[in-house]
């Protein structure tokens, strides 16, 4: 019996079908399908009336260049999912006149079949992101008198972005960040900090503060081993002091930040969990022949 597969962007779906796509995901992995941001698309595949595959794409523009960030992959049939991604790549190649970088964040769940699937689609592994959970502890140390953690206000966004983008290639989100993209994070409840030592910037953070934890999505400390170690314990102390209802500090670090990971491990994290792989590929423009 012939199978009828329909490929649709989520904005073309009725609310009933959007809710059906949502059921492909765990609650924590929901790609905001009920209220899709303007820069996002969610591509879906249906077999009859049932969703069988979906993936979210975010178009990221920076200094005249466009990159595509793919996340929230979900499928019940890998062959249909592969067809969905092939169609997406074909569409992207027809929309661009320049080579376009595509980044894929794949949840790390020891599913080697999934990694092989994306490799067959042309992706290569770039780095791995890991989640660490540290207790908030009221450390006291004379050296902390030389440290400060500053909330970044709107008039300081350019300076923070400059430092952040210098080290973007080692962060969990490796794309350079524009003011517009930073603003979209702030509107979703994220806050940015600059870490200072002896009055000089030595680190950047992007975090979201919850009821029970401080979730640091991006962190980088640009200094020696001593500065790195003191930086982590200073963060534990600062968030304990300022946010007493919070009990844990969650940090995301990547395999391209070995010194940072070592400093975190020395602070005896409560847990360490693989988070996701970042994989990359390039899309070339489709050849167009003028008549």
Topology:
Blueprint: E1 5-9, H1 15-22, E2 40-47, E3 50-62, E4 65-75, H2 78-95, E5 100-107, H3 112-120, E6 124-135, E7 147-151, H4 157-166, H5 179-187, E8 190-197, E9 200-209, E10 213-221, H6 225-242, E11 248-254, H7 258-266, E12 271-283
Parallel strand pairs: 4-5, 10-11
Antiparallel strand pairs: 1-2, 2-3, 3-4, 5-12, 6-11, 6-12, 7-8, 8-9, 9-10
Helix pairs in contact: 6-7
Can you say what the CATH homologous superfamily of the largest domain is?
Gcn5-related N-acetyltransferase (GNAT)
Tally of distinct domains: 2
- Average residue pLDDT: 89
* CATH topology assignment of the largest domain: Aminopeptidase
Task: Using the 3D structure, state the CATH architecture of the largest domain.
Answer: 3-Layer(aba) Sandwich
Shape: elongated
Please tally the β strands and state the result. 12
Main-sheet strand order equals: 1-2-3-4-5-12-6-11-10-9-8-7
Strand content: 35-45%
- Helix-strand topology string: EHEEEHEHEEHHEEEHEHE
Computed structural class: alpha+beta
Indicate the CATH class of the largest domain.
Alpha Beta
Beginning-to-end CA distance, first to last residue: 42 Å
Give start-end ranges of low-pLDDT stretches: none
Main sheet attributes: strand count, strand direction, barrel closure: 12 strands, mixed
Protein name: N-acetyltransferase domain-containing protein
InterPro entries: Acyl_CoA_acyltransferase
